[in-house]
Amino acid sequence: MKRVDRYLLARVDLPDSHTLAVYRAHGGYQALEQVLRKPWKPEQVTQVVKDSALRGRGGAGFLTGLKWSFMPDPAKDPRPRYLAINADESEPGTCKDRVLMERDPHGLIEGCLVSAYAMRASTVYIYVRGEYRVSYARLQAAIDEAREAGLVGRRILGSDFSCEIWMHPGAGAYICGEETGLMESLEGKRGHPRPKPPFPAASGLWRSPTTVNNVETIFNVPFLVLRGADWFKALGTKGSTGNFLCGISGHVERPGVYELPFGVTAREILEQCAGGVWKGRRLKAFFPGGSSTGLLPASSVDVVMDHDSVKAAGSMFGTAAMIVLDETASIAQLMEVTLRFYDHESCGQCSQCREGTEWLHQIFRRIVRGQGRMQDLDLLVSLANGMAPAKTICALADAAAIPTLSAVKHFRAELEQCVRLGRDPLATATAQSPEHHEAHA
Amino acid sequence: MNPVSLHPVSPNPASRKPVSLTIDGRAVTVPAGTSVLLAAQSAGIDVPHLCHDPRVEPIGACRLCSVKVEGARGLVAACGQQVAPGMVVTSEDPELAERRRHVLELLLSEHHASCANCDRSGDCRLQDYAYRYQADPHRFGVYVPKHTAPNYTALDQGILYDADKCIRCGLCVKYCETVQMAEALTFTWRADRLVVSTPGDVPLRETDCEFCGGCIRVCPTGAMLDRGAAHHGRAADLKKVRTTCAYCGVGCQVDLYVDPHKNRIVRASAEPGATVNDGNLCVKGHFGFEFVGSPARLRQPLIRRDGELQPASWDEALALIAERLGGIRQRHGADALAFVSSARCTNEENYLLQKIARAVVGTNNVDNCATSCHAPSVAGLAESFGSGAMTNSTVEIRDCKVLFLIGANPTEAHPIFGLEMKRALRAGAKLIVCDPRRTWMAKHADLHLQHRPGTDNLLLNAMMRCILDEGLADLAFVEARCEGFAEFRQNLEGFSIERAAAECGVDAELLRAAARLYAKGQPSAIYYTLGITEHACGTDNVKNVANLAMLCGQIGKWASGVNPLRGQNNVQGACDMGAMPHKLPGYQNWSDAAVRTRFEQAWQSPLPQSAGLRIPMMIRGAGQGTLKALYVMGQDLVATEPNQSDVVEELQALEFLVVQEIFLTETAKLAHVVLPGAAFAEKDGTFACSERRLQLVRKAVEPPGEAKADWEILLLVAAALGKPMAYRNPAQVYDELASLAPVFGGISHRRIEAHHGLQWPCPDSHHPGTRFLHEGRFTRGKGRFHAIAHTPPREEPTPEFPLILSTGRTLYNYNCGSMTRKTAVIDAKDPGNFVEIHRDTAKHYGIEPDEKVAVRTARGRVTGRAVVGERVRPDTIWMPFHFAEESANLVTNDVFDPVTATAEYKCCAAVLEKLPQGG
Q: Which bin fits A375, alpha (ψ -120 to 50), beta or left (φ > 0)?
C-alpha cells in the first residue's frame, strides 16, 4: 500500500485540535476567507465540487456537486434555503464522522459555511446522533467560538454572506439518519421518511429547498476550494475520487478509523491497518460498508475498495465501515442480531418493511434456536425480494433485505445445516436460549 | 421543480393542461398534476391501493399500488407519482401480482383476519384484494395479537379502534393531521409495534379531536368503527341511502346506512369525490343522526284539551285546524293569520306552505327563519348585485389566494366550509380574519383584526378609504360594471382611518395591511356570516361588504366574490321558495302585475293584495292582538327569537297556534294543535345549500308512529281548508315551481339526480347550472355602490351594563339543540351553557375558570360555566345559544334591522355576576 497523503485526519491528533486557535494555526478558515474575500461566485464553489467528482460519504455515494445543482434558482424561487448536515451516524459499524466532529469540529463548520455559500443557504442544521454527546458539545462550542470570531452569523468576515448554524440532537432512532426522516425529525415530527418525489431540493425542510449532506462529505469541501479538483481527482480511482474514512471493526487486532485513498483493497485495510484477523484466526466473511451492505465471503477480500469495484463484487461501498467476522462466527446468529436491529428500527410505515423486517428476524431467530424449517431459506429470499430493491419509501427495507440475500447466497449450506441439525453449532449459548431474545426484543 | 402540492389539479376547468400517457397499452389523457393512480382510475383501470385518499398528500406506505414505469428504477408507487407526457406504465402483470400478493400476505400476517365477525366484511378493501390476489394469511406464521391493552378509545362514546385489525396505512393519522388539522391522532411505537394512538396515549376526548369521524371514514379495514354501529350490521345487512345533511347550509352529501328490518339508521358516512363535501363531514353530519330515532319524537297529533296537550287522531286534528283557521279568517280576514315556514324542511314543503298562505288562506304573512339570520344578505346583496346568495361555489374556495373572513367562524359554524378553507391555507392562501373572537381561523390568520362588536362599517369604511388613498381600487372594473360610485366615494371623503381604527379597537396599520392584502389578492374572496347580518344595521353591513368587493373588482370571477355562508340546511331554499312576505318563489316581486297573473293562473286563486309580516312582526302582532292565528312548521320560535320571556307571553295571546314539529319544542308546548312531522331522513325532497345547489333528500327510514312527511301534512291541511292540491310526490311539486320561477326553470328531481345537484340560476333543461354569479354582468345589470354610514349598536355599554354580550354557535351543537343534544357523543363534548370571558375581565369580577356565573342584561339573566381565556376581547363576553334551559335569548336584545327585521343578536350591553360558590 502506497503512503497515504492524509488530509481528513491531518489535524485530529494535534493537542486541542477542536479549538479555533489550533484550527486556524493549521490553515483553518482559509477556504472560507478565499471564497468570501476574493470573492468567489457561489456557482464557482459548486463547479469545483462538480469537477472533483466528490461522492457522498453517507452510504449512497451520490455525486455531491450534482445534488447541489438540484437546488432551484434563487432568482425564480424566493423560498428560504437550507443545508442540513446528516451527523446521525447510526449505521452499525460506522463511527468515522464521530472522529471528525469530536476532534476537528471547525473543519465541519467551515465546510458547512462554504457549502451554504455555494447553495445560497443562510441556515444550516447539524443533526447529531443523540448518543454522540461529545460530538454535540464540541460542535456547539466550536460554533459559539466561530460566532464570537465573526465566522458564523450576520455578515461573515464583513461580507454580505450571513449564515446561522443550529445544532439538533437526535433521540436514538436509526431512521432519522434517512434524509427525509431527518427532515421530519428536524421539523419536530416523528421520523417517518417522506415519499420521493418531491426530493429535498424541491421541497425539503418546511417545504423549502434543502440539501442534506453527510459530515465527511462536507468536510471535504474546504480542501476542494483550497487545493482544487485536480488534486482531489489524483487521489482515489476514476469513479471514486479523494480519500475516505474507513472504520474497521469486528474480529480484528486493531479496530479503528483510518484515512485511505479509494483503490486500496479490503485485504490491505484488514492486514496493514487493522493488523489482520484477531487471535490468528482465519477470515470467514465481512461487510464492506456497514451492516446494510451485502455480506462478502473471505474469497472476496481482495476486492478494491471503491464504489464500482465493491458493487461488481456483489455488495456496496456504503459508509466504508468494514465489519470483520472470523471463522468461529455463526452466520445465523450474525443475521439474527442484524435483523433484530432493523426490526427494531423500521419506522413501520411501509407494509413490507414493517412486517418484512419482523419476519426476517423471526425466521433467523428460529434457525439459531434450531427450530428452522428447510423452506425458511426460500422464504427469506422471497421476503427480501419483496422488500428490495427500491420497493419502499426509503432504503431501510433494502438495508435489511440486502444482507439477508447475500447471507443466504454465500452461506446457504451453513444455514441449511442449522436446520438439519436442529441447532446452530456455531452460535453462542446465550443466543440459543429463548430468554435471551425476550430480554432484547 | 415545484413541490408537489396537495391538490395539483385545480377544479377550475379553465386552468387545466392535458397530459397524455400510456397505461397498460391504453392512451390516457388527464390534467397535469394528476397522479398515475388517479390517471389509471380515470381510465377504468383499478390499481389496488390501501393508503391512498385523494384528499391527503400521498402516503405511499402500503406499496400495493406500485407499478412499472418505463425507465424508472425499481417499482413506482402510483399514488405519489405525477403523470408525465409520454410516460409508459404497466399496472398489472404476473410479477406485480406476485409482489402484491406478497404485500397482502405480510399485511394479513399482522391482521386479525377474522372476516367472519367483522363489521366491515363485504366493505373492506383488504378483504377484496386478499381475494383478488389469493393471498395466504398464514404464509409466514400464525397471527399473535400484539396490542391487548385498552387503547385511547377504550372509554370513548364515538370511536372504536381495534389495533388487531389495523394495517397501519396511516390514513386516519394523515387525515386528522392535514385535512381536519386537529392533530388528535398520531402513530406511536415503531416497526411491527406501530399503532395508532393519541399524543401521550391519552383518551381521545382529552385531545383536540373534533369527532369529525374522518378516521372512521378513511379506514380501509374494520380497525376504526363507529362505536354505536359496532356489531349492528355488516355491509350486506345495511342499506345505503345517499341524502343531504340536515344541519348547516354547506349541503354535505351523507350516506346513511340503514337497517331496514329495525327501521334504524346505524351509521353515517360520506364518499370522497361527492359534490360539495368531498367525503368530509363534521361531528354533526357524522354522529348527529341519533335524534331521528329518539324516543322523544312526536308519534301522533296532539290537541290541547282542558289546558293539556292530549293525543288525538289526524282527523280530529285536521278538523279542528280547518274549523279554527277558517273561523278566524272569516271573522278577522286573512291577514289575521300567519305562517312560519321552515329552513329545516324541504323546498317542496316550503313551496307548499307559502302556497297555502297565499292561495288557500290569502295572505302574504309567511316567513322563515332567514329573518333571524341572513335576511340582510338576501336583501342587501339583492340591492347591490341583484341576487342575494353566495356568489361562488364551495369547490372554488381551494383556489382562493386571499381569504377575507368577517364575522364568520366557519370551522365551528360551517365546518366543511372551514375544511375547504384549511385546504386553501395548506396550498398557501393568505388569511385575513375580522372577528371580535379569536377563533380557529383567527389563530391561523396572517392578519387578525379583533374589532369591537358592532363596528364593522367603521372597519370596512377605513379599509376602503385606504384602498382609495393608495390607488389599489380597480377603477376600470368600477367604471365598467358599477354605479353609484361618486356618492360612495363622497361618503368616504374626510373619513379618518386613525379615528375609525381607534373606535374599532384595531391598530390602524393592521387595518391598512388587511386592505392592501385583500385588494391585491389574485384572487381574493369574502366570506361572512351572522357577525355581519345579526345587527340592527345588518343590511347596511352587507351592502358595505359588497362595496368592498366591487371597489377591488374581486367579484364575478372564479374563486372571487362575496359569500354569505348560510346557516341552515335549507334556509337558502326557504327563501328561494318565496317563504318570505315580500317575494314570490324565485325572488319574484308579489306586486309585479305580470308575475301575479302567472301565479294566479297557475294557482287558480287570486293573490293577496297587502304586504306580509316578518316573524318578529308576527310575534308582536300576536301580542298586540292583531294577529289571531299562527301556523308554525319546524321552527322553535321561543328558543330562537330574542327576548324570550316576551315571546312566550306574546305567543300565549294567540287565539290559535298550530305547530308542525318532530319534537315537543318550547314553542310546541304552547300550541293548540301539534302535528307530528318527519325528520329529514324520513322523506323525499330537495334542499338548496349555501352555494345555490339543489340536492336530493332521500327517504331512508319510516317516520315514527303516525308521523307523516311534512309535505303530506300540508296537503292534508290544504284539503281540510277546502282547497285540495293534487301532487303525488315532491317531484311534482318541484315541477310546478320550475314552471313558475324562471331561475329554477331547468331544474327537476330527475336532473338533480343526474347532475349530482344543480346550481341556480338554471333557466332551461339544457343548462348545466351556474358555478359563480355575476360574470361579466351583475344580475341587476350594474353593481350598485351604497354610501354607508356607521350606525352604532342600539345598546352600548353603560356603567350598569359595562360589557358587550355576543352570541353564536359551537362546533358540536346546532341552533336550539333539539337535534344535536340527543346524540351522546355531542352531549358529552358540549353539555351545557358557558360564557367566554377574557382573563382580565374574569380577574376584575373575581371569576375563576369553570365556575358558574350569571350574565344579566336589561331583559333578563342566564347562567353558564365561565370559560376564561383570550378568545374574546376584555370588553366582550360571548355565549352559545344552544341550551334551552339556559337560553341566551332570555337576554338578547329585541331590536331589529329596519329593512329585514333581523334582530341584533350579536351585541347588547350586559354585566357579569359572580354567584355564591360551593354547596
A: alpha
Residue B327 shares a structural domain with residue B437: no
- CB contact B581 to A (< 8 Å): no
A72 contacts chain B (CB < 8 A): yes
Q: What is the pLDDT of residues B142-153, one digit of tens each?
A: 777 777 788 999
Using CB atoms, pick whichever of B80, B102, B194 lies closest to residue A195.
B80
Strand order in the sheet with A256-261: A256-261, A243-250, A321-326, A283-287, A296-297
**Contact between B221 and B208 (Cβ < 8 Å):** no
pLDDT for B815 equals: 86
pLDDT category at B7 given cuts 50, 70, 90 is: low
Cβ pairs A/B, distance under 8 A: 113
Partner residues linked to A63 by β-bridges: A55
What would the CATH number be for the domain defined by A20-233?
3.40.50.11540
> Residues of B with CB below 8 A from A195's CB?
58-60, 77, 80
Amino acid B866: pLDDT: 96
C-alpha to C-alpha distances, B262 to B670, B701, B702, nearest whole angstrom? 33, 9, 10
Q: What are phi and psi of A275, to 5 degrees?
A: 75, 15
User: pLDDT tens digits, residue range A64-90?
Assistant: 999 999 999 999 999 999 999 999 999
Residue of A70, A72, A354 with shortest CB distance to B191: A354
Task: Name the residue ranges covered by the structural domains of chain A.
Answer: 20-233, 243-326, 331-439
pLDDT in tens, B64-87: 999 999 998 888 999 989 999 999
Annotation: CATH topology of A331-439: de novo design (two linked rop proteins) (1.20.1440)
Facing A198 at nearest CB: one of B3, B167, B191: B3
Instruction: Reply yes or no on whether the pLDDT at B4 is more than 70.
Output: no
CB B77 to CB A195 under 8 A? yes
Task: Confirm whether B174 is domain-assigned.
Answer: yes
pLDDT tens digits, one per residue of B871-908: 999 999 999 999 988 888 889 999 999 999 899 999 99
Name the class of domain A243-326.
alpha beta
- Least CB–CB distance from A357: residue in B4, B63, B191: B191
CATH code where residue B172 lies: 3.30.70.20
Report how far Cα A9 is from the mean position of its chain's Cα atoms. Answer: 17
Is B74 in contact with A201 (Cβ distance < 8 A)? no
Q: Is B106 within 8 Å of A355 when comparing Cβ atoms?
A: yes
Phi, psi of B186, deg, nearest 5: -155, 165
A 169-188: CB under 8 A from B: 173, 175
Which CATH number do you get for residue B617? 3.40.50.740
Interface test with B, best of A185, A342, A351 (most B CBs within 10 A): A351
B355 and B315 in a single domain? The answer is yes
C-alpha span between A86 and A126 (Å, rounded): 6
Q: What is the reported pLDDT for B73?
A: 81
Q: What is the pLDDT of residue B6?
A: 47
Whole-number average pLDDT of chain B: 93
B482-494: pLDDT as tens digits = 999 999 999 999 8
Tell me if B679 is assigned to some domain.
yes
Number of other residues whose CB lies within 10 A of the CB of residue A19:
18
Chain B 86-115, residues with CB within 8 Å of chain A CB atoms? 99, 102-103, 106-107, 109-110
pLDDT digits (tens, 9 = 90+) for A380-410: 999 999 998 889 999 999 999 999 999 999 9
A75-132 per-position pLDDT tens digit: 999 999 999 999 999 999 999 999 999 999 999 999 999 999 999 999 999 999 999 9
Parent domain of B267: 141-293
Residues B903 and B848 in one domain: yes
Chain A: closest CA distance from residue B427 (Å): 11
Are A350 and B61 an interchain contact pair (Cβ–Cβ within 8 Å)? Answer: yes
Q: Show the DSSP H helices in B721-846 as ranges.
A: 730-740, 749-755, 824-829, 839-845
User: Distance between alpha carbon A179 and the CA centroid of its chain, in Å?
Assistant: 11
Contacts of B208 (CB under 8 A, 6+ apart): B182, B183, B184
With 70 as the cut, is the pLDDT of residue B8 above it?
no
ipTM of the complex: 0.90
When CB atoms are compared, the residue of B60, B191, B194 closest to A195 is B60
